[in-house]
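Memo to structure team: turn this sequence into structure tokens by end of day. - J.P.
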Amino acid sequence: MANDYYGALGVRRDAPPDEIKKAYRRLARELHPDVNPDPQTQERFKEITQAYEVLSDPGKRQMYDQGADPFAPNGGAGAGGFGPGFPFSDIMDAFFGAGAAARGPRSRARRGRNATIRVEMDLSECAFGTTRELVVDTAVVCPTCSGEGTAPGTHPETCEVCGGRGEVSQVTRSFLGQVMTSRPCPHCGGFGTVIRRPCPECDGDGRVRTRRTMKVRIPAGVEDGTHIQLAGEGEIGSGGGPPGDLFLEILQRPHPIFERQGDDLHCTVTIPMVAAALGATLSVETLDGPRELDIRPGTQSGQVAPMYALGVQHLNDSGRGDLIIHISVETPSKLDEAQETLLKQLAALRGEETPPGRFAPGQQGFFSRLRDAFNGR
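Reply from structure team:
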């Protein structure tokens, strides 16, 4: 095979299941995307996960050891390069005897399914991280039979039809002579064992449904749509198989003041016309509490005032985004007599009783454009 699954986990080819499981867990803690977000490390994590999926399943491991593709629907092509559907094992049995390419009994253990939980969070929780207590409805190992699926005091018995091989053989005649074909044992379903007395609690499945509570640390910097993978926290597989993964999907609630753009926060602050002209010091709300903001004299509507490092914490990195304040200058719409008199005096002092109209570049009036057209400009 192109992939060296034993080398990926760093174990011998004859390593027992417990050694393979320990090697995978050790590497998963080092290479998990939540610990190391480097893209090359994530590819390495996928590689060891695929290796563990094959080597922890006795059936897939045997297929891999024989040179077949453990993920192919029909068990993969043989080591000799025969294509899908070619009866390679049957030909091997015919020339070298039964068992030359035997697939063996199937394991009752199956990997559990993955599960996804949606977690709603406030903006401050996304910015700084939090610890959540989650209630998860999932499948766990049956406490009565410990995943074996049998009633207390009993164990799976060897199938008397296939003798524990999980398959039965039949000899037929063909142009090659006598050909022995194999198929899964109809009595035991290919498992090689039968359960005479199923566990009364799990009905032979080896797992039961339950509700459990778990505490999860959600890192700072997550945003709406972020997925967090918790390896091995999903459902236990049937027959006591390894668990799947649990994924947390973050849903960020809207904030009444701030709008998030990446790790920066944006908000609008409206100030009076006089404060914009003379300058002022305002107290503005931030995720860290009230902070003072200096408004420079002559501030115009639409200008921005950044407050550095008061945004959201960078995910898996140090530092924070910024808080961007957008200034909106409010012009009074109603004036009393005294206020109107003062403003007229100010206008007279500034020579603005009749303010000249100004056009921005490219914004000439209709008659100016008409005049330019006749003058040949």
